[in-house]
Amino acid sequence: MKRVLSCIQPTGDIHYGNYFGAVKNWVELQETYQTIYGVVDYHAMTMPYNPKKLRENTWELIYNLMAMGIKPDNLFIQSLVPEHAELSWIFNNFASMGRVENMTQFKDKSVQSKAGKDGFISVGLFDYPVLQAADILIYKADFVPVGEDQRQHLELTREIAQRFNNQVGKEYFVLPETLFTETPKIKSTADPSRKMSKSAGDKHNISVFAEEAVIRKRIKSAVTDTGEVVEGQMSDGIKNLFEILKAADRQDDFDSLMGDYNSGTLKYSALKDAVAEALVGLSNSFNARKKEITADKRAVKYQIKISSDNIRKIAQETIKEVKDLCGLVNVKF
Ligand code: TRP
Questions:
Q1: pLDDT bracket for residue 149 (50, 70, 90)
Q2: What is the pLDDT of residue 198?
Q3: SS3 sequence, the chain?
Q4: Which residue among the candidates 53, 185, 198, 217 is catalytic per the annotation?
Q5: Domain segments of the chain as ranges
Q6: Of the candidates 34, 69, 94, 191, which lies 20 to 30 Å from 272 by C-alpha distance?
Q7: Which homologous superfamily does the CATH classification assign to the domain defined by 3-184+296-326?
Q8: 246 is annotated as an active-site residue
């Protein structure tokens, strides 16, 4: 069975852009692949952060992923597998300075970071993609499902693997492939010209765990037409609402409302009602599952400690072979 690996940073809430764009796909991949999913807390230290919040967010994300359908056996927390950090140090020596300097995520985030209190940009933020390469290669993943924004990081990962293989004179790492699945790109309902995102502010995203009333209000106030109506062209706002409907597997509603649109009889209120209904249905079931899961947090933490230990065994095996191959001392008594 081919192995799939992906990771997510514990930086707060999950919104419908994240769910339809990534997590829903992760849930489905569990059926056809051996899947490993990490909550990467070491990565979350690369931007200004609060220690107490980091730990809270890490567990919160575990509960959230489980509530959305990720099996706990497939989940690990990065800092419970310290070999990631060890491999990333080794990989620093196989990563090209010039290439890492060119990463657009670093450029974007260093702007955000500079806008913070004291203009501080950490070496960790710069080195982030090398740690990401370690996350992937330590499990010898065949496929990595990520969005377009991570394409560069995946290329760097392959380059590091290649250079390592050349150095040790052996095709040790198989070059991982990006698994680009067709996932919908959900837009902000308040401004459908931009994608749904956390950083843009509250009204630009809808939490997967939002209360019913919040969801209904947000969808009701979703922007539909922005003034300039181009004859025969669907506005971004309407397109986005249809996109959400389809992403939520409401194909029947989608077909009938699209029929109305095509015959010029679509009532926006009917489209909005259908979208609100779909999201409320999803959120209600996620919230119910989350309630069950968090009823015994200690039990979940224990379960994740065990699953991280199990997943760690793969990482330990890799790090042992890597150290041996790249000339670090290897004493056996
Ligand atoms: N960089 C990814 C993001 O910003 C998160 C990530 C860290 C990741 N390590 C990874 C994704 C390994 C895939 C594989 O979304």
A1: confident
A2: 84
A3: CCEEEEEECCCCCCEHHHHHHHHHHHHHHCCCCEEEEEECCCHHHCCCCCHHHHHHHHHHHHHHHHHCCCCHHHEEEHHHCCHHHHHHHHHHCCCCHHHHHCCHHHHHHHHHHHCCCCCCCCHHHHHHHHHHHHHHHCCCCCEECCCHHHHHHHHHHHHHHHHHHHHHCCCCCCCCEECCCCCCCCECCCCCCCECCCCCCHHHCCECCCCHHHHHHHHHCCCCCCCCCCCCCCCHHHHHHHHHHHHCCCHHHHHHHHHHHHCCCCCHHHHHHHHHHHHHHHHHHHHHHHHHHHCCHHHHHHHHHHHHHHHHHHHHHHHHHHHHHCCCCCCCC
A4: 198
A5: 3-184+296-326, 202-291
A6: 69
A7: HUPs (3.40.50.620)
A8: no
